[in-house]
Amino acid sequence: MPGGAIPQPAISPVVLIDIAIRPRMNFYLDGEREGSFIVNTKASYIHGQPYNDPDDNPNDQPELRVRSEPTAIQARNDDLSVRIVHSDSGETIIPLAGIAFNETNREYSISLTGTFRPRQAPWPITLELTKKDGKKFIATTELYYLTKPKGPQSVTRIDSLYGGLQVRSTGPAWEPFFPYSFYLSGPWLGSSPDNLKKFKELGYNVLHVIPGAGGIGYDLHELDTWFDQAEKLGLWIMFDMRWTYQNINYVKTQVERYKKRKNMLLWYTADEPGEYPRPLFLLNRTNFPIQDGHEDPPDAPGKAYPFIKSLDPYHPISLCLNCQNYYFQQYSAGADIIMADVYPIGTNTEYSTKYQ
Description:
By secondary structure, the protein is of the alpha/beta class. It contains 6 helices and 19 strands. Helix 4 links the parallel strand 16 (236-240) and strand 17. Helix 4 (248-258) runs parallel beside helix 5. The longest helix is centred in the middle third of the chain and has 14 residues, at 220-233. The radius of gyration is 23 Å and the shape is globular.
């Protein structure tokens, strides 16, 4: 795509079915007995494949019954039969349940202990949907059933049904967690040992320190002191590698040093990485004033992602896109959590100088 912008999609003349399957949790741990899959059968005119065959009556459009609340499996006369299988072995995991057309967030419970063995590699999964006329639709996903981490450390996972985080630290129970924080300055933290306590008293629960430019960007011994204090205060760590995530040596040093902390929440790689599509006649001008973000290579987050996961599969990876529509698809491929800089403080959110 020229300039990396996502184009306006074409509109289909017929209704499409946009099917998707995903595990409810982005991973499960050894010892958990049950899990679930979330299935969507959305009606769309943009994404998916035709719900009816081309030779079907064009006036015979499906009834669009919107069902968006999470539901358990029910025995009922649905539009599509559902079968979920191991992609490799063909073993059936969910046998012939039902689902309606244009339904979202349908949850299907599964047994983990009787079906999967813990490992670090994902299990490939296939969803088969069959209409009453025999037409089939296929979608795939991966399920992670991980071995437990060695030694005491935190674990963070994503609940894809409700969109939140779950954390475990020293105990076996998962707890819901809503991060609330902002970017913190290292010099401010270091100016007084009471600053972190003040930060906690204001209601924030995540420590996100911005690294300095040059080298690894931190005094790691100073950082250890702050993280120890944060753990005592009940603050979680969002570790920022914005200047170093493209250097595997720096990444390995930081991830190996901090992944086993009891208050590690998640990793942060690209910060406003967007590339601005400069006109050809300006490509050689270094003083071109317009720039959207730090102009990281579009594939950089995607290259860092599997390496970080190989070192630490127990914490999500996040990044923050900038506001312009450049290479969003490529950058987003390198993260579990996509953020945006909204900057609601110190600005007039009711007036825009751009759209005045």
